[in-house]
Amino acid sequence: MEGTREIIFDRLVYSCQFSKQRGDEEFIPEHLLGFQLSGETNAVYPGGSIVVPENTIVLIRKNQLIRTTKYPSKSGEYKFVSITLDREVLNKYALENKIEVEGGYTGTQRLFFEPDNFLRSYFISLAPYINKKKEATPRLADLKIREAIELLLQSNPDFKQVLFDFSSPYKIDLGDFMEQNYMFNVSVETFAKLTGRSLSGFKRDFRKVFNATPKQWLQERRLEEAYYQIKYLERKPVDFYLDLGFENLSHFYYSFKKKYGVTTSDLKKNDKF
What we know:
The protein is built from twelve helices and ten strands.
């Protein structure tokens, strides 16, 4: 049975499925507050990975890449509900409550987990809307979003440094960023935005740093990592090609042989490599 993904009301999304599913790479443009109703989510992000178990609340910071694998519970269901806390609603809330933040969040943690009973009860209160027993009017939907913000700040006042940081992304070091993110199969436009650059500026700076186009460098870097995975970790391409950003296994095999002159099967047998 295929899974479903429904927009219950503006900014509230409900996902349900009944079999393991590897998700595509996702660019998270706005803060996202979620609750794992059943099953678990394995998330990979630049610099690490984490497991979101059942009955866990997670706050995912904006402007980052993430890849997920979703596992149903023993009962056979995976359920996850999420609310987008975008700039528009947060800016309005900050103005009305006279919230000012000096400087943005400087920590390195990308995902926050808060086992807060008030937040759990909040997500449970959304059940009537998810089950279609109650319809949320625009005004009620707005109130539910505001309630989520209130409860987040109550659970951890430091979250205001994350939620109400409205500064524009600044230019970050391209070399370090690409080394941490090359395996994500997203557009060049997304990479540009994440590094605080326009598309043309990203391509120009990329050429200066790598002496190649983004497409050329990404292909080479992914193939280099594939070589390492096969030769030294003894992994099979079928087990990792998606994780390195390749969409098609056949194209991976073709590209690998074109670069190294041998097939992946012959790699270990060839002493020259």
